Amino acid sequence: MNDRAFIAALRLVPKNALSRAVGAATRLPLPGPVGRGLMGAFARRYRIDLSECGDLSGFTTFGQFFARPLRPGLRPVAPGDEVIVSPVDALVSEAGVATNGRLVQAKGIDYTAAALVGDAEVGKRLAGGRYATLYLSPRDYHRIHFPLPGRVTGWRYVPGKLWPVNAASVKNVPGLFTVNERLVTLLESPLGLVAIVAVGATVVGRVRATFDADVPVTNLAGAGAQSRDYGTPIPVAKGQELGAFEMGSTVILLFEPGRVDLAPALVPGARVRVGEPIGGRAV
User: Fold this and answer.
1) Contact 189/36 with Cβ under 8 angstroms?
2) Are 103 and 131 contacting, i.e. CB atoms less than 8 angstroms apart?
3) What's the distance, Cα to Cα, between the start and end of the chain in Å?
4) Is residue 162 within 8 Å of residue 205, measured between CB atoms?
5) Which of 19, 86, 189, 249 is catalytic?
6) Cα separations (Å) of 124 from 24, 100, 112, 265?
């Protein structure tokens, strides 16, 4: 099946309902031997390094395994308040400058920062700034961390569709990341405003924030757009956990113009890991 036929077939699939059903199944308790067998088979299929998370007997559901924590010390965080670190283990999909407020999705397809973050004023602050799109495959560690220290000033929950975020969809679904469901965390950092956008996907619609228990869990039936700006921002440390994909997807970082340079090695196809330096103050 070619990419266009794949996308056409997916248009007929109730992707949000399917994702909620799969998500519910991943939260069901599994008997020990069955659970370990399922998790072990998944790990072999996607070449997951189980030495990073310890014994599978510690997970009672598949969802716990998918959003597994790592053993302490496995992802050292590069020091420096003005050193940007990767928030996730991922493959770089795109990186560049949001010229005129537009980010590249794929060749011939772009979208606006304002549409992505679901806020015109925030989009204006980020127009012309650097950005990086980071894709998490099934084999990756699926927790998200803060790329800089600072204060969380608010968040935006934008409900939407749940297309896959694989290469076929990226190349064929216009404005994919502005169509899919997403949670936007706004961080005021030593390098200005940073938007950390967690994008959902098919069977990957559930994103849970850990910096504030009141942030809504995404992909709930009938949920509308929500947002909050904190009267008292929440201080966070670089490398601190922001949240997790209960199943995984894509994280997009957006920065204010003129404040940040990204590392030359941050190009499509590059691999990054949590805590690794990926940029810093513009020179």
Assistant:
1) no
2) yes
3) 47
4) yes
5) 249
6) 38, 9, 10, 27
Residue 119, CA distances (Å) to 37, 123, 229 in order:
44, 6, 12
Q: What is the C-alpha separation between 1 and 7, in angstroms, rounded?
A: 10
Residue 89 annotated as catalytic: yes
The residues near 239 (Cβ < 8 Å, ≥ 6 apart) are 75, 77, 85, 145, 146, 274, 275
Residue-wise pLDDT for 131-152, tens only, equals: 999 999 888 999 999 999 999 9
Burial class (CB in 10 A: 0-12, 13-18, 19+), 215: buried
Q: Is the pTM of this model over 0.85?
A: yes
Q: Return phi, psi of residue 234, to 5°.
A: -95, 115
Q: Chain-centre distance of CA 231, in angstroms?
A: 26
Strand partners, 145: 241
The band of 205, judged by pLDDT with boundaries at 50, 70 and 90, is low
Catalytic, 142? Answer no
DSSP count for the chain of H helices, then E strands:
8, 16
Active-site annotation holds for 145: yes
Tokens coding 279: 């940029």
**Long-range contact list for 45-54, CB < 8 A, 24+ apart?**
46/137, 46/138, 46/139, 47/139, 48/139, 52/141
Label residue 121 by pLDDT band (50, 70, 90): very high
Handedness of CA 221, 225, 230, 235 (dihedral sign): positive
Placement of tokens 């304002």 in the chain? 114
Go through 37-65 and write b for each residue having 16 or more CB atoms within 10 A of its CB, e for each that does not: eebeeebeeeebeeeebeebeebebbbbb
Active-site residue among 19, 86, 140, 145? 145
**DSSP letter string over 32-47?**
HHHHHHHHHHHHHHHT
Q: Among the options 86, 89, 140, 169, which is catalytic? A: 89
